[in-house]
Amino acid sequence: MSETKKTEAEAPDVEAGEEIVSTATAVPPLEAAARRLERLLGGGLSEKDRHLHTYTNPAKIVRRWLGTASGAAGSATSVDIAAAASTLLDPAGPCSKGVELLTDGVSLPTTPDKKKFLTIASCREVESWLISLSIRLMRKEGKFSEAISLVQKGIESLLDHLNVASTNVISLSGVASSSLFPLLARMYRYRSLITEVLNDQAIDATQRQDLAKAHNMACLRRDVDCQATLLNLMLQDLISHSQIEQAQKLLSNSTFPDSASNNQLCRYLYHGGRIQALRLEYTKAFSNLSQCLRKAPTNTGLGFRIAAQRLLVVVQLLMGEIPDRHVFFTKGMQAELAPYLAITQAVRRGDLAVFNKVISEQASRLQQDETYTLISRLAHQVVKAGLRKLHVSYSRLSLADVADRLGLPSATSAEFVVAKAVRDGVLDATIHHDEGYVQSHDLVDVYATREPAEAFHRRIAYCLTTHNDAVRGMRYPPDAYKKQLEASRGNRRKRNDEKTDEEKAQELEDELEDEY
């Protein structure tokens, strides 16, 4: 009986001891994420100065790891980042500059435990990742001057790592140190965001030259991440400075990489649609913006989808089409699209007075959305919509009544507007100048015109584009053609029994990469 009581009394002490041990051995989120990247990139090799990549596509591994590590990085503070840098990065190794940048001015508690630093397999990637987290934290806190200085030093450090790695790092795919490419693209993205806030002309001019040189180098080393990111940044910079013709030249003389991420493709389609809309190429702009909205993620990026939807609505109105009503009542977009719903209703009614009233009331909002220039072109569409309604309703109408219905100043102005509409093919009518009226002709069967063929052509083009995207997205089994070749020659053998250890190890690594 006494032994039972003694055991029950000692049980809480044992459980408390287990809780103490588990608390003491808990690893911080940033360190845990960095250790996971170390394992993914094949860390822990005996050769510290030379690294043989275990995976054939390390950039893909780092890109996916950045997505999984976003949760650990979301709540990180400057102290957490500095502590992770002092724990993971060797101050006497290749990342000494990064340790100095991250721990400068941050007081850290002394830890008597022996630190286990990362190997060359992942120390450069972790260093760049921690620097990017520190830059993002400074940007959130409004420390833009410190952030622009740190991001510039971070880019220089990454470029130094790339130069050194090009001679020391061996990759099975023949591309040297491609695991640094996604992080370098993130650095350029942060620098562009910070520069946009600072709005310094000297910094903007310098950045434009640096972006062009960096894009050239990314094309030479086949860096897909930096190619896509830098091209979007250059297009955004030219659009923000109203250099539309230069942006069109860059758009027409550059090639967007096919294997770029979906987010960068959406940005590229949005910039292309905006440039084409400003250059009066509304059909191409409508195609790019529609594809952008279809490819945009639905669970995040609400602000981007709102901006794309606003621009698409304006382009549809400029094309003479009326957007569907459900577009303006999409979840999360009702308040942002309310002014555009009022404009669409004014265009649909063909009332120029109501249209001018809505524009004057929402002028500041439209200028903030950067759509005021495009919407100012809609006045002619409003007049055309009103003329269509009058053409359907009346076979004969005086020019004075046309001016009164459309809100035009005089019958002479109405005559000029009707003449232009007749010349553009909007109306099929005859103007009697002496009598002062417009005589409409009989309505023509729409199926006898080219409108059904053009609509059918648009649908076929959309289906072909969807089919081509699906074909490019399909994944074929590797070396499938070799098996067919062996079967045709009649020398197929049991490869599983005759494979060497190196071949089996390579297949296992490929399977791990596909699963991750």
Architecture overview:
The chain has 516 residues and is mostly helical. Helix content is 68%, strand content 2%. It has 26 helices and three strands. It has helices at 2-24, 29-40, 58-68, 70-74, 78-88, 96-103, 123-141, 144-168, 181-198, 201-220, 224-240, 244-253, 262-278, 282-295, 302-318, 334-349, 352-361, 363-369, 372-375, 379-393, 399-406, 411-424, 451-473, 480-489, 495-498, 501-515, and strands spanning 396-398, 429-432, 437-440. A three-stranded antiparallel β-sheet has the order 1-3-2. Helix 5 runs antiparallel to helix 6 (96-103) and helix 8 (144-168) runs antiparallel to helix 9 (181-198). The longest helix is centred in the first third of the chain and has 25 residues, at 144-168. The chain is elongated, with a radius of gyration of 32 Å. Mean pLDDT is 76; it is low at 1-24, 45-54, 170-176 and 492-497.
Low-confidence stretches: 1-24, 45-54, 170-176, 492-497
The string of secondary-structure elements, in order, is HHHHHHHHHHHHHHHHHHHHEHHEEHHHH
End-to-end Cα distance, whole Å, is 56 Å
Based on secondary structure, the structural category is mainly alpha
Give helix % range.
Answer: 55-70%
What's the Cα radius of gyration?
32 Å
Can you give the mean pLDDT? 76
User: How many strands, which pairing sense, and closed or not: the largest β-sheet?
Assistant: 3 strands, antiparallel
Strand content: under 5%
